[in-house]
Amino acid sequence: MSTEPETTQDAEPGTPGADAAAVAPEPAGEGVDRVDGPSGEGDVSGEGDVSGEGAESSGTDGGTGTEGTGSAEGAAQLSEAAAELAAQRVERERIERRKAEKQAPIEAGGKLSGTAADLLAAVRAVESGEKPVAAAFREPEPAPRGSAPEPVRQPRPVTAPTAPAQAAAPEAVAAVRAVLTGAGAPEALAAPVVAVLGEGAGDRLREDPWQLLRVPGVRPEQADGFARALLGAECGPDDERRGTALTVWLLEQAAVAGHTALDAPALTAALSQRSVPDPDAAVQSALAEGEALVFQDAPAAAPPAPASQDDAEEPQERPVRILIGLERYALAEESLADGLARLMNSVPKEDGSAADWEREAASAPRSAGELIRTAATHGLVLHTGGEASRSEAAALLHAARALGLRGWAAAHTSGGRDGFADRLARQEPADGSATGTATGAATVAGLLSGAEGPARDADGALDLDVLVVLDAPQLDVETAAMLAESLPDGARLVLSGDPGVLWSAGPGRVFADLLAARVCPQVASRTPDPGPIGELVSGIGIGELGQVEAPGKEVVIVPVRDAGEAVHRTVQLVADSVPRAIGVPAEQTQVITPGHGGAVGTRALNTALKERLNPGPGRFGGFDPGDRIVHSPAPGRALPGRVVRADTEGLHLDCSGTPVVVPREQVERTVRHGWALTAHQAVGLRWPAVVVVLPGDAAAALTRPWVYTAFGRAERHLSVVHGVEQALPRAVAEVPQKPRTTRLQALLKAQTPTAD
What we know:
It contains 26 helices and 20 strands. It is an alpha/beta fold and 756 residues long. It has a six-stranded mixed beta sheet. Strands 7-6-8-9-5-10 form a six-stranded parallel beta sheet, with helices on both faces. It is globular. The two termini are 29 Å apart.
């Protein structure tokens, strides 16, 4: 698999580009488009888009791709990622420091605390004759168990950040601007360069022009042009600095496609396509500089080498896979593996006897009872199933509450959180006689930030006993690592989700790796999704696209011949047919299409739907009050909402009941119209009616997980605007999820060598 966001035919010639002015990244909105990859944007595999026009990597489309501009907005995204990494490192340092303190030798009782310190004081008191033995060793009354108080959170508008936390020094920006303009590069890159390279960015650029590749949106051919203008005849494709910079850039692009590392042969092949004469030397240079790390992992399920009779007594060498990765994702995977092993090896808190757990399990439906029994004795449990299986997770939290445990659920989206909260409410007795510790639901992002969910204890861990993570396939490796590190010893973690949906926008395939590693119990739901839509989606999950009986028009196929007809029929369905025949209003109907660009991408469909449903002048960046939107505050996050108003503060949005204010300068980059979304943006959400648009030029983009995810977003009605003919059943039957290279499975098996 290629690791570049374009076709391999675009590899540079042997000499870097000669035009220094080409260093300017493509302006937002002017580049060509492609279908959404794992990040909801372009895919690094090099395949084309709906329109076959190339690649776009705008982080505003719900993806993790870098912004297709060299402006300060791209630097803000990098700053957010750097800040998140720094926060993770601080958390790890705190945990390691705590472990070291526990393992350090105790000198003369000086480091004792709690009961140990009291006993030492009592012994010394008896030895000195100050107290009699009985009085010295009398134990105090045990304090009643209590939870940390919930933080008081007043609802208030959330304002999107307008700039990096630390503004670049003016003198540093001026120095970089002089270097850029001297080589014919746009001076607008000065602030982003300083944000990435630091205060000495000007000197670093002079020493190594290819450091410009670290700026989001800058491509290799543009960095080559800048280097040629700056170095002149000294610039060449064999420059060691160029090889190192391209190695790091390719690893970053691989992360956009979901990989946490790359096989060494794949990386060297990609470097060869970029006209690096000695790819192996380039990789070694990056490793020597500490820009990348090398790992040796045994391939999963590697077949044993055949042994002949002559060498039967000699041990057979197991094949080893050489992987190259960035430190950021290597640390995240190792931290996640350690955190999960800690949960698996720690004894779950014994709140309630085995008989109490069995009583709760016996009173629940069959699949829910199995989940409750498994969670009773294990610290980590995997729970698989469709939308209907969420009732089993709700039953588990209800049982935890009855046993006095503090239980919470965390969903990928605010819509998923609110829907699960309704399920929890339906579990409560109608007479209001429920007792025990309250349960609740939050989003994963809100739980980690402290904006939602339980408080933290004195050690910084979440103050809970049971955590159920819904939409587990959407966990990227960094988010999953932060969750694992935030759980206290003895807590129960249940990862619940549908393994058939699209994977996370960020790097990694956490849920799939855990399922494949088989290091902990797995509970498969036996609760089927109801109705014709549930039957259709279940068949897609096993590779079969069959016909289903839909007497209430739950599933409707609308064939179209071309792009113009597809747009026309989509607008007709949303505005007229579905409200009239199904009774679902237009504001509760969601359109899903494979890509953002092209004649039937999200942009074209949103333009047509706005003209029909909410026409207006679009005075504020193309938006009017009442417009449906999707807000992307950070790469990989997509928050559907609606425009409320606009004023001097910015664009005021309502995102699932949460007021959000987007400053004027960020509107174009982070807000799009939302009548039509991609499947990656829609994952984790559901609507009463969904219209899935499959134009003819989208055939190459279809996969079984994409179809499964898009069709599964509908609750009551699904319309399919069908223009791909036999490509749809072929994709369902033959095109699986695109593979990702990760290390988590091998790390988990190393932590639990006795696992199957």
